[in-house]
């Protein structure tokens, strides 16, 4: 977390001294989300065994159930909040939608490089479906909004399918130069993603937060309460244990997703409110993630 914080500060500084303008920051995010992270997913998933892949169904089921619970509790929590309808829907999504791609994935792979492949595949598939299938439905004020399945076929989900295919076909690519190169490029995601988050925070600025301070309601729920609930439901019961439980806690301790402003724009919600939520939770997760990790070891 100290490394991530340092890289975020570097990103903020680079944006503030205008080394990167808005156009370059957007292009930088495209390189990360459409090249670096997909290569990381392919090589991590493609390096696991079939038994690990088939064993990930438990993690898949736990992740699906946890997200369903979070969505239900989040929409219940915003009912009494004094927000307009558009902001209420956005607040609910800020409460429950995480940032597995830019924060969770680099952390998990850095912490568990040899055991995270199956869990990474399962979680990212669930999160992609949540964002691009159920997200627009949950966020929309138009009850007739249709599901756009094309959104699900992103470089991230395609890379998951490629990694799974490599495992199922029992293709061993270890030792090949292009495979090692893909691994090396993918391993940089934890650095570049953190720098991008810092640059994104820099260009959004603090003014948006000042005018949308109610996004702070998401902090205890998203960053502390939900991962602890997950720990008790799936950890204390023994459904998940060891590395799998730690990976689960990390994924569900992540801040609100960087893609929420995109969903807000798609569904005619408050984009600035969504951006404020991602800024606040991203900065504060530097403190809450270590705290939640420590708390789960003593509970």
Q: Mind explaining what this structure looks like?
A:
The protein is mainly α and 299 residues long. It has a single domain, classed as Up-down Bundle (Na+/H+ antiporter like fold). It is 74% helix and 0% strand.
Distance between the termini: 22 Å
CATH-defined topology = Na+/H+ antiporter like fold
Annotation, overall tally of beta strands:
0
Radius of gyration over alpha carbons? Answer: 18 Å
List keywords for this structure.
mainly alpha; globular; Na+/H+ antiporter like fold; 299 residues
Fold topology:
Blueprint: H1 2-16, H2 22-45, H3 50-55, H4 57-77, H5 85-96, H6 100-111, H7 117-139, H8 155-168, H9 177-186, H10 189-204, H11 207-210, H12 218-235, H13 242-251, H14 260-266, H15 271-298
Can you give me a brief rundown of this structure?
The chain is mainly alpha-helical. It is 74% helix and 0% strand. Helix 10 (189-204) packs across helix 15 (271-298).
């Amino acid at each position: 977390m100290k490394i991530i914080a340092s890289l975020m500060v570097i990103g903020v500084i680079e944006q503030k001294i205008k080394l990167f303008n808005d156009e370059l920051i957007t292009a930088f995010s495209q390189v990360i989300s459409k090249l670096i992270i997909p290569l990381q997913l392919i090589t991590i998933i493609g390096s696991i065994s079939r038994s690990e892949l088939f064993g990930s169904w438990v993690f898949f089921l736990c992740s699906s159930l946890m997200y369903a619970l979070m969505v239900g509790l989040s929409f219940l929590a915003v009912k009494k909040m004094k927000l307009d309808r558009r902001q209420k829907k956005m607040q609910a999504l800020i409460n429950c939608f995480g940032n597995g791609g830019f924060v969770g994935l680099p952390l998990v792979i850095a912490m568990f490089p040899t055991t995270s492949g199956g869990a990474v595949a399962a979680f990212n598939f669930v999160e992609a479906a949540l964002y691009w299938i159920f997200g627009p439905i949950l966020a929309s004020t138009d009850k007739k909004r249709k599901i756009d399945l094309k959104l699900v076929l992103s470089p991230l989900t395609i890379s998951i399918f490629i990694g799974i295919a490599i495992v199922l076909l029992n293709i061993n690519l270890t030792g090949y130069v292009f495979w090692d190169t893909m691994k090396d490029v993918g391993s940089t995601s934890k650095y570049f993603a953190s720098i991008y988050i810092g640059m994104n925070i820099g260009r959004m600025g603090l003014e948006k937060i000042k005018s949308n301070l109610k996004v702070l309601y998401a902090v205890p729920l998203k960053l502390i309460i939900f991962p602890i609930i997950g720990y008790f439901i799936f950890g204390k019961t023994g459904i998940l244990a060891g590395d799998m439980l730690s990976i689960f806690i990390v994924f569900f301790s992540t801040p609100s997703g960087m893609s929420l402003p995109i969903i807000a724009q798609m569904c005619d919600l408050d984009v600035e409110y969504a951006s404020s939520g991602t800024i606040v939770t991203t900065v504060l997760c530097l403190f809450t993630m270590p705290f939640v990790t420590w708390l789960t070891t003593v509970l």
